[in-house]
Amino acid sequence: MLSTYTPTDFSLEKLVRPNILALKPYASARDEFEGEAEVFLDANENPFDTTEGFNRYPDPHQKKLKKRLSELKNIAAKHIFLGNGSDEPIDLLIRIFCTPHQDAILTLPPTYGMYEVSAQIHAVAMQEVKLNPDFTLPLADIFRAIDASTKLIFICSPNNPTGNRFAVADILSICARFQGIVVVDEAYIDFCEPNHSLVAQLKQYPNLVVLQTLSKAWGMAGLRLGIAFASAEIIALMNKVKPPYNINSFTQQAVWEILQNPTTKTAQVKTILAQRATLATALAKLPIVLQVFPSEANFLLVRFRDAEAVYNYLLQHQIIVRNRSKQPLCDNCLRITIGTDQENQALLQALGQYPQT
Ligand SMILES: Cc1ncc(COP(=O)(O)O)c(C=O)c1O
Q: Does residue 167 share a domain with residue 92?
């Protein structure tokens, strides 16, 4: 798999599962006829509209929404795929590139758990290469682990649960040497300042896929909208495999409306970043805290003397955090999402009263 690589060596056709390459996708009624008409009797819908046109199927290509995203992200719509959360593109990419019982994905624990779950669902093997102890990318180990079965590498940056962002040069060196697909999950990218997104690098790296989501900074977790940015060819494959109407009408309309005014999101991110700094300083002063890891996301990874005990104590105080102690390199660590000022104060107050032994 490794060689002196230039992007021209990259062959998408060789990477894609043959059955997916050959697949003739389902043609929905809205695929067969896309224009304006007076009478639609082609999709077996109920003709009576009681609420907001919900009797009709949604646009399978989400054209209006992609146009808005294309303006906001400064990239043509043919490079954008929309999924039911970013978990959907994760699942689709594994389905497109990995043959069950034969191929593998490479992940970098500790990291987001859905890469592994999706791989297991599809009977795709896992190659796990632990991050360096300082949470940086173990480049030499990654290149050693890659073999002919490795089809996808998932890099989460900023990483969940560690909170750090990986050096762009390191990620691009993987894109340059690996002839499979590099998926960079930027779910938390809006919490980095300045913007370090790799979307601008897609032109140089035909094997790069960047995932983003509206569930975090944009505050739309309940609407379920994830985005994949990639070459037009990879996006076409994802469109071929997705369920025809994967983004419902309500989500398409509500997200479009929220995207008209990005100032709310910008202001909320600013507040969250200020709260993150305040919370990190306050937590670091607590005697029960051993370490607060630097974060470029909307959460802090915090090492406690006894994370399990602190987790249970917070639970009793109706405060729920995520216990990540079982993850590699995260011994005694809790992952704490940045809440409102009031919520963060409630957390600090509870921790301040933690019984000392
Ligand atoms: C790194 C990462 N990627 C993806 C997701 C899933 O996001 P979505 O809500 O878009 O499915 C999460 C959610 O926690 C995440 O932490």
A: yes
Number of H helices, E strands in the chain: 13, 11
CB of 87 shorter than 6 A to ligand 1 = yes
The protein residue whose alpha carbon is closest to atom 11 in ligand 1 is 85
133 lies in some domain: yes
Tell me the average pLDDT of the chain: 95
Average the pLDDT over each of 16-30, 151-165, 319-333 and give the range with the smallest value: 16-30
**Cα–Cα distance measured from residue 208 to residue 138, given in angstroms and rounded to the nearest whole number:** 19
- Please check whether residue 357 lies inside any domain of the structure: no
Is any ligand 1 atom within 6 A of the Cβ of residue 160? yes
What is the rounded average pLDDT of the residues 291-310? 98
Structure tokens at 349: 């107050």
Residue whose CA is closest, atom 3 of ligand 1?
187
Backbone conformation region of residue 44, classed left if phi is above 0, alpha if psi is from -120 to 50, else beta: left
